[in-house]
Design goal:
The protein is an alpha/beta fold and 406 residues long. It is 49% helix and 18% strand. The strands form 6 sheets. Strands 5-2-1-9 form a 4-stranded parallel sheet, covered by helices on one side. A 4-stranded parallel sheet has the order 13-12-11-17. It has a 3-stranded antiparallel sheet with strand order 6-7-8, with no helix packed on it. The longest helix has 35 residues, at 101-135. It is elongated.
Length: 406
């Protein structure tokens, strides 16, 4: 309603100078003429505010809408209603248009001036309304975590702010990019570059205050988040979306001698490790050591583990022609899984098809078996099978990221 009021003011304000110009052309002479023109200007201002929405459109758009309304006003009032008022039938002929041409110029000029005034008046009104909204105390929300959940929460809060919610949102993350973790295996194999699966958090949540840092502790009593830098963030509502970390179930040697796959650093480290082993194996003459260097074991056959063993296969065989000392039959790949089939997230038919494709490549599998121990040069299964290897990737368990509170 307030926007319509500004439209009425703009229409009447524009009518004053245009009416004076029309009066000098003897187009508006008596009081009834001035009253009719004021009523016309009021209608144009109201319609323009409803159609163009003031400053929400650009200046050119608002002025153009005013010109169009002025032309329509000339067609409706001068060519249609005015003849009817004098007891004549409207003809909309060239002669009638030529007769009322000065009124067309006046209406178009009034519409354009109304559009200009409405744009600037509504802009000032919007600025004051924004200042009034900013003066209202906003609920402080702190989101901890820059993964899928944290960024999605920040984006949802941004949409609520656009709808009028009084929120002040801050996101804290120890990385300044959003990572598409399902494709970490492709980075480990070199099929994708790190930049291909990451995007800046500041662009993903452009209207959220971002803090690049790590949380030291959370004080739920004082409602404060303390960063390792010493900075303190006060909050009214706290969203913890810190994700997960590898869970090795305290199995001997697994944490110390396995490669996790949770972030870009893990993927790059694994790729560099595999290439170093290939360099070493190319020159190694001891058969036992060569078996260790060229055997690759992945624990966990969910999406991450299954894709990881396939990508390791592609990485090794994709660069094997650079290592003439390694025979194509030497590299060995083993997938270990505690369940009865791989890819439990999928249906049995798709899982069986994936298993067939892996087996066709020569990738071995150990189902219904768990890893019980790992060392620098071997992995032990629960049936006491020993697999000599220098590369052991763990994707068989996750747990929530620890977060301390006081």
């Amino acid at each position: 309603m307030e926007q319509l009021g500004w439209g009425a003011v703009a229409g009447l304000a524009a009518a004053l100078p245009v009416g004076v110009l029309m009066a000098t052309q003897h187009m508006v002479t008596a009081f009834p003429g001035w009253l009719a023109f004021a009523a016309y200007a009021l209608v144009i201002g109201l319609v323009l505010s409803a159609v163009a929405r003031g400053s929400r459109q650009g200046l050119a758009m608002t002025a153009s809408a005013g010109v169009l309304l002025g032309t329509l006003g000339w067609l409706v009032f001068s060519l249609t209603l005015e003849p009817l008022f004098h007891g004549e039938l409207p003809t909309w002929s060239a002669a009638a248009a030529a007769k009322t041409y000065p009124e067309l110029v006046g209406n178009v000029l009034h519409g354009a001036l109304t559009g200009l005034l409405l744009h600037f008046v509504a802009g000032v009104w919007s600025l004051k309304a924004r200042e009034r909204r900013d003066s209202v105390e906003r609920a402080r929300i702190v989101v901890v975590g820059g993964g899928f959940a944290g960024v999605a929460a920040a984006q949802r809060f941004e949409r609520l702010v656009l709808r009028g919610a009084k929120l002040d949102v801050t996101l804290v993350s120890d990385s300044n990019f959003l990572l598409f973790t399902p494709m970490l295996a492709e980075v480990a194999s070199g099929a994708l570059e790190p930049a291909h699966i990451s995007a800046p958090i500041r662009s993903a949540a452009a209207h959220t205050t971002f803090h690049h840092g790590r949380v030291d502790r959370v004080d739920p009593v004082g409602r404060e988040v303390v960063l390792e830098s010493g900075e303190v963030l006060s909050y009214d509502h706290l969203v913890l979306a810190v994700g997960s970390v590898p869970h090795t179930f305290d199995l001997p040697g697994v944490a110390e001698h396995s490669f996790p796959l949770k972030n870009l650093a893990d993927a790059v480290a694994l790729r560099n490790h595999v290439l170093r082993l290939l360099e070493a194996a190319d020159r190694e003459t001891d058969p036992r050591t060569r078996r260790e260097l060229l055997t690759f074991v992945v624990a966990g056959a969910g999406f991450a583990g299954t894709e990881m063993i396939a990508e390791l296969f592609d990485l090794v065989h994709g660069v094997s022609h650079y290592y003439p000392g390694i025979q194509p039959s030497e590299p060995r790949f083993v997938l270990v899984h505690a369940g009865g089939r791989i890819l439990p997230e999928l249906g049995p038919e798709l899982a069986a098809y994936a298993m067939e494709r892996l087996a066709a490549r020569g990738i071995e599998h150990r189902l219904n078996l768990r890893v019980t121990e790992a060392a620098e040069d071997l992995v032990r299964l629960e049936n006491d099978e020993l697999i000599p290897t220098r590369t052991f990737v763990w994707t068989a368990g996750n747990k929530p990221t620890p977060c301390s509170a006081r």
